[in-house]
Amino acid sequence: MPTSTPSLTISRILHAGYLFECAGTRIAFDTIFENPFSRNCHAFPAVRFDHEQIRRQRFDAVFISHFHDDHCSLESLDLLDRATPLYIYCLFDELFDMVRQLGFSQVQALRLNEPVDVGAFQVIPREAMDADVDSMFQVKAAGMNVLNVVDSWIDEGTLAKLVEEGPWDMVLWPFQTMRELEVLAPSRASAAPPELPEEWLPQLQALAPRYVVPSSCQFLQEPWSWYNRAFFPITYAQFAKEVGAALPDAQVVRLDPSVSVRLDAASLRPALPLDWVIPVGAQDVDYVYEGNAAPPSTADIARHFAPLTAAQHARVLEYCRAGLLEKYGEVEAASEYFDRPRIWQLSLVDHEGQVTRFLYRLDPAEGAAVDDSDAPPGWTTEIPMAKLYAALELGESLTSMYMRINDTVFDADTERALLDADVVDDPLIRCLFSDTFGAYQAAQLRRLLARA
């Protein structure tokens, strides 16, 4: 009797989420079953999820590459059977504790270069450029060798090791460069060229895969958001054009959510799509980039958010009057700009566009204090009040807060000093995020346990 060719089926879930199937074994990566996810990441192309069907799915293992909330969401994990083995790359014990509190009984920490065997699969975590945060995955099954780069960039030392692990049948490559920091200070940022970073093509040429999938991303912000024209410089078309020219023997394969392919030694063929990931509307969509895209005022942005309740409003004001002052003394700036006293103006904008301003004197020796002088500010921060509340209580991340930094012209001496300052030295960013881990997942866990 003729024998079938060994093959591996790969299905796209969303963003960096995939389902791999081989010889009756099913493993998933970075499972996100939400739209929107991470509060304001809307699937692009658009999809919806059949949560009842997802609850009936059984995976032999789920692998999570890192703790960021667009890869590790407790709301999505809550849909899975609690006996599902979870393998997570994370250096912080808090995340493992939260997942176990959710009820999962088999939760394992991944170690770089230590293989995990699950049925027909061997999965090997590989070192990402920022090994304190990210990991990549080498996946072996049916004689196939797949590299899932997830969100990572690859340094030269790791690249050399990956080349030795070849040949590669497929590489899932994070094709979009996102301008998370540039949109915080658009008046001070240069527009990015709509082309691949110069190191990507030589790295892909060194890996020499048969197939390249533009991976990760697959989202836009809210439909009204100016970020949708300023955040995402690279199109699918540009990626296919540049990679196709640099790797003429490779095929660039776009996998939209729900789409499945069967990979074997000779070919890549369509397979049945996932019926629990449901495409909505046009799927052959692409990004549009317009440089810094004329950002609207923070007042215009703030009008899109619901008004805070009286208690929520009070929580924000109390933080600005007291909590922020206490926190500032515990965090340090990375650059030297705040090594001398500075006046900082923090502007909170409510749902009607009304502004509440706070002035602080920031002193490296004495910490922060409310300033009642008439000295001009040397740093400014604007934020919708609803977003500051969300950061304090809901685990909102920086990329969805619509913060605006130093959107003004200072005196000449201040402008010269700002040339060497880093936007993430912003005092509010440091107070909210510099020593905080897993705030988004912690807020999710509180909601899920209360619901249970």
From TrEMBL:
It comes from the Bacteria. Gene3D superfamilies: Ribonuclease Z/Hydroxyacylglutathione hydrolase-like. SUPFAM superfamilies: Metallo-hydrolase/oxidoreductase (SSF56281). This is MBL fold metallo-hydrolase. It comes from Massilia aerilata.
